[in-house]
Design brief:
five-stranded antiparallel sheet; alpha+beta
Length: 142
């Protein structure tokens, strides 16, 4: 499910993940079905998906066994939609990544604004690989 964004966005626009690449050369492939091969690539693509309002991608890349999963799908979809619609995404900075087998960690800072207020945050995200796919499991904001 796709939601309407505040400004025009094209495949040649800068990727919302802050990589410095065009969206078509960065996260678009993941949003179109390519599977991210690292926790960092998944984290960046999820950030870009929030910025683009790609609710299905956010849900599809969340671990159903992790604490970030919400069994109330209707409420979860609405929360994601509202957050994406009311937030301006200014990019993400990766501080540290690690992988140990089928577990991964990404420490990052996300630049966000909502109604001109800075709601930026830093997070340590936990990822798990299931059946060859990385999934977001949970995150600790600090």
């Amino acid at each position: 499910m796709k939601i309407k964004r505040k400004k025009e966005f094209t495949p040649r626009s800068a990727c919302p993940c802050g990589s410095g690449k065009a969206y078509a050369d960065c996260c678009k492939a993941f949003h179109d079905g390519e599977v991210p091969t690292t926790p960092e690539a998944l984290m960046r693509s999820r950030y870009a998906a929030y910025a683009r309002g790609l609710v299905d991608y956010i849900i599809d890349t969340t671990d159903p066994l992790g604490s970030a999963w919400d069994a109330d799908m209707t409420a979860w979809v609405e929360r994601i939609k509202k957050f994406a619609q009311k937030t301006t995404f200014g990019g993400v900075k990766i501080h540290e990544t690690s992988v140990d087998g089928d577990r991964g960690v990404v420490k990052f800072s996300a630049k966000l604004t909502k109604k001109l207020a800075d709601i930026s945050f830093s997070e340590t995200s936990q990822f798990v690989r299931r059946e060859g796919r990385w999934l977001y499991s949970e995150g600790e904001i600090h």
